[in-house]
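User: My collaborator sent over this chain with a note saying "see what the structure looks like." That's all I know about it. Can you take a look?
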Amino acid sequence: MPEHVRVGVIGTSWWADMMHLPSLASHPGAELVAICGRNRERAEEMADKYEITEVFADYQEMIEKGNLQAVVVSAPDDLHYPMTMAALDAGLHVMCEKPLALNVHQAREMTEKAEAAGVKHMVLFTWRWVPYMRYLLKLIEEDQIGRCFHGHFHWMVGYGRGGNYGWKWDRHRGLGILGDLGSHLIDIARCCMGEIAKVSANLANFVERPGPDGRPIDPANDSALLTLQFANGSQGAIHASAVAHLGSHHPEQQFVLHGEAGTLEVEFCFGGQYTVRRTRHDEKQAETLPIPSDILEGLNANSPSLEWIGQLFTEQAAGDRLFIDAILKDRPVSPSFYDGLAVQKVIDAAIESHEKGIWVELE
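Assistant: Without extra context I'll predict from the sequence alone. Here is the result:
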């Protein structure tokens, strides 16, 4: 087994700086040896901050000359496919941001190529690892609500209200809020309730945004409402919005699962605290459940939300650190490109449903 993994990161955004780079830098088995960004000055700043020796402005050059074993793709949606395929051509392990691609055809090619190359492949569905999500999945595994009848997955933010240009709101570059937060909710719904069989969706554009040159763009959605039918017959609903004004309660997550043995609820906002509640089928009052210490693993659940999320991804086996562990120990990693492909199928079905006004069955 190798003792270290030589890693290159493509992307220098605030997210790469908050999530990928500190997570990798905190892992004793990861060697951050290269970084790539279109803005070389910004890339050099990140290289200085994380003591990275090689700086590139062209990802293909980094893949060719960086002497890498693994690459992290933290770039806009439209670049996931070419960057990942180039890395796979070079035989590199790949961690890719969500959504995996712009469409299911790209996602399938990426998945098949990664498998054929025999490398580790992972998608960063960040919210799988947060403590309240892990606890919710544990309660489901313990059969706390029995057969699940229906689930509601709700995530409201307001960062799309300003009307400024951003690549995620450009249909040629991103998938809107459906790809941004909706992909997380689809993944969470699959984790909680199983595979999705049919989708009916309404995608909206509430805020007008100019392109980078001031001219109109073909806009991606800033609100996505999906009705789901699961393979096991359960029903579900997903609502993600980037145009909700929530004040100090921003942003807001709510997950509710109703089953034959009771109900589980999770509420969370960055400005406040999380709450996990259970109501048994023979009870009238909901019971608030503290997250067990073995799930928190030393995290201070009462500290500011972003603080313990940052701690989670730099001290525990989550995200990039889990990716490195899988390479070093040659073990399976999840969520993989297969999960990314499964989510992409739902995204494509939602877009088709909205455009045609019909229910769309998944493969």
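A starting point for your reply to your collaborator: The first strand starts at residue 5 and ends at 10.
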